[in-house]
């Protein structure tokens, strides 16, 4: 029975996606849609079409295969969805009325943040024993139906301590609302880049532990998910922090199923956030897990330096973080100049040098020379420990004078492995 449970969860998630897609079809046809349960209203089912649909449905065995279910027409898909209904879902389906009650009718006092996607509110569910974050998507915002569907699917299938937990969703009428576990300390961006007067700067060890946890989240997507999942929007604002500053990746609307079989990449429209995208992806649309590794390198550089990836308030030659850092990365004598001034020198010199070496390897121009995220996790686990002595960095203990991307070995070395490159 244990072997069947993952498949059961995957199948249930497929049911969610197809049902929500049906809502989009209904809206496209201009029909009024009062609530999610309207999917259950049509009892006219063609036996032959339904049998074929069920046969296709049973072939679903992985994250990627949900997209391969095909139907001859929209009506056969509608009949199929009508038959299977909502199922026993691992995520909860909320009514709009329930979420209005949870957020005091989406009052301003409950607002946690807002952006191009819509607004996020703090709310309480179940009388009110559980705090949640309620993300109400803007009907004309950047995150549309497709991103909504992808996020519900991904977070229904993928579970890990460093991935945010999706409590449920609402698709009443034209409402698109996602309900997450509440993360008490907001985002990494709040503590790193938008520091208010009442917040203390993150100390060095906390920064390294956040980086390690975020890397473990990516590792789960790349190495455990089958097929692998490419996050595609790794940035500081998408790394949420709980009350103990444990990081969790959020916002999976742009996530993409990675290459399978003999394929080395997937070709897709370039999406993401300017400054974080890997150069080969931005230029060609070819997406691999190495694209995420590059984005991780950018965020890790933000963690080390306390600088924004793009900051137009700085001098022209310092506005782009990676462009500013590249010449400094070539000589380890510059590394101390890159440390966040708010740290006030409170970091192990050896740890700083090794952290910058990790960031430099992730930011290699050639994707094939970047390390696997598993190697990054190993290096960061070392950096997040308390065993790095602050004795100054000896040449044998840190990165070489130049960071060279010509090696075929994509591993990252720490004291437990051969010398760092």
From TrEMBL:
GO molecular function: ATP binding; protein serine/threonine kinase activity
Bias-annotated ranges (Acidic residues): 389-399
GO CC list: plasma membrane
EC number: 2.7.11.1
Binding site residues for ATP: 135
Positions of region (Disordered): 389-421
InterPro entries per the UniProt record, alphabetical: Kinase-like_dom_sf, Prot_kinase_dom, Protein_kinase_ATP_BS, Ser/Thr_kinase_AS
Keyword Heme: no
First-tier enzyme category under EC: transferase
Membrane topology: Lipid-anchor
Domain Protein kinase per the UniProt entry, residue ranges: 106-383
Superkingdom of this protein's organism: Eukaryota
Identification of the protein by name: non-specific serine/threonine protein kinase
Native source organism of the sequence: Vitis vinifera
Annotated gene: PBL23_4
């Amino acid at each position: 029975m244990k072997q069947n449970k993952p498949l059961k969860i995957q199948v249930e998630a497929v049911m969610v996606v197809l049902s929500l897609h049906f809502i989009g079809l209904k809206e496209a046809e201009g029909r009024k849609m009062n609530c999610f349960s309207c999917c259950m209203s049509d009892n006219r089912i063609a036996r032959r079409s339904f049998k074929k649909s069920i046969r296709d449905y049973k072939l679903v065995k992985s994250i990627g295969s949900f997209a391969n279910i095909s139907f001859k027409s929209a009506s056969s898909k509608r009949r199929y969805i009508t038959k299977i209904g909502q199922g026993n879902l691992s995520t909860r389906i909320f009514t709009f009325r329930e979420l209005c009650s949870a957020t005091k009718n989406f009052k301003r006092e409950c607002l946690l943040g807002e952006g191009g996607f819509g607004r996020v509110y703090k709310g309480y569910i179940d009388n009110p024993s559980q705090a949640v974050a309620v993300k109400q998507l803007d009907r004309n915002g950047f995150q549309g139906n497709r991103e909504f569907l992808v996020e519900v699917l991904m977070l229904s299938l993928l579970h890990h301590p460093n991935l945010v937990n999706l409590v449920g969703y609402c698709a009443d009428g034209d409402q698109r609302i996602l309900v997450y576990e509440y993360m008490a300390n907001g985002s990494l961006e709040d503590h790193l880049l938008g520091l208010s007067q009442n917040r203390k700067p993150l100390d060095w060890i906390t920064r390294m532990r956040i980086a390690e946890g975020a890397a473990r989240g990516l590792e789960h997507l790349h190495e455990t998910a089958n097929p692998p999942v490419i996050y595609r929007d790794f940035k500081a604002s998408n790394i949420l922090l709980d009350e103990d500053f444990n990081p969790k990746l959020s916002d999976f609307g742009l996530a993409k199923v990675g290459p399978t079989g003999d394929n080395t990449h997937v070709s897709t429209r370039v999406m993401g956030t300017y400054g974080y995208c890997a150069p080969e992806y931005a230029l060609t649309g070819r997406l691999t897990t190495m694209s995420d590794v590059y984005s991780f390198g950018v965020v890790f550089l933000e963690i080390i330096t306390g600088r924004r990836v793009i900051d137009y308030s700085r001098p022209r030659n310092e506005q782009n973080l990676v462009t500013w850092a590249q010449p400094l990365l070539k000589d380890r004598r510059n590394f101390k100049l890159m440390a966040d001034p708010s740290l006030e020198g409170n970091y192990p010199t050896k740890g700083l040098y090794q952290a910058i070496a990790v960031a430099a390897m992730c930011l290699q121009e050639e994707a094939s020379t970047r390390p696997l995220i598993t190697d990054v996790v190993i290096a960061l686990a070392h950096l997040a420990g308390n065993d790095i002595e602050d004795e100054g960095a000896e040449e044998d203990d840190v990165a070489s004078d130049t960071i060279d991307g010509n090696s075929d070995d994509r591993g990252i070395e720490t004291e437990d492995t051969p010398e760092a490159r």
